[in-house]
């Protein structure tokens, strides 16, 4: 699952077109959803079911979409990793006095840059009495090539 964030609908449309052109041949299925299409699926759900198509999984995934800010169960469990008790069935970090701060650091995807960024993070975070928990999320910026670079293939 990925997300396209754009400051204007036309930019999002152009980005979707570019992603489809470049990645479509390399994917079994490439589907772009937005809130309008989800409303359309919800309204036509019973019609789809008449033809044996269940859109329930798509609708459920949209409702639990981390790209829309919905926390995932494993993410919520990670808030309790230093607690001396098992995470409760109902998460309430305020009540249970636990939680975390997310900090997004951007560095080039090169070994030396990542090692340097990790060293800086450790020094700063540990220096303030906090404990870093590292993970890597791949965020890929997709920019259209300039006209004079169109011959470059991804």
Q: Approximately how much helix is present in the residues?
A: 40-55%
- Count of alpha and pi helical runs: 7
Q: What summary fits the major beta sheet?
A: none
Overall mean confidence score, pLDDT? 81
The proportion of residues in beta strands is: under 5%
- Write down how many β-strands occur, each being a DSSP E stretch of 2 or more residues: 0
SSE-based structural type = mainly alpha
What coarse outline follows from CA principal-axis ratios?
A: flat
Q: What low-confidence regions span 5 or more consecutive residues with pLDDT below 50?
A: none
Distance between the first and last residues' Cα: 20 Å
- H/E element string? HHHHHHH
What does this structure look like?
Helices cover 42% and strands 0% of the residues. With 154 residues, it is mostly helical. It contains seven helices and no strands. The mean pLDDT is 81. The longest helix has 17 residues.
SSE topology sketch:
Blueprint: H1 9-23, H2 35-43, H3 45-50, H4 56-63, H5 73-78, H6 93-96, H7 111-127
Question: Could you give a short description of this structure?
Answer:
The protein has 154 residues and is mainly alpha-helical.
């Amino acid at each position: 699952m990925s997300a396209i964030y754009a400051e204007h609908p036309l930019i999002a449309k152009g980005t979707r077109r570019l992603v489809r052109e470049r990645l479509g041949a390399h994917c079994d299925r490439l589907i772009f959803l937005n809130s309008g299409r989800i409303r359309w699926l919800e309204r036509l759900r019973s019609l789809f079911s008449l033809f044996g198509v269940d859109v329930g999984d798509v609708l459920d995934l949209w409702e639990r979409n981390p790209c829309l800010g919905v926390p995932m169960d494993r993410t919520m469990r990670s808030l309790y990793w230093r607690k001396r008790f098992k995470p409760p069935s109902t998460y309430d970090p305020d009540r249970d006095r636990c939680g975390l701060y997310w900090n997004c650091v951007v560095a080039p995807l090169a070994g030396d840059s990542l090692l340097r960024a990790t060293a800086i993070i450790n020094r700063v975070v540990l220096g303030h009495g906090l404990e870093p928990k590292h993970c890597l999320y791949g965020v890929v910026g997709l920019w259209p090539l300039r006209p004079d670079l169109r011959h470059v293939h991804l």
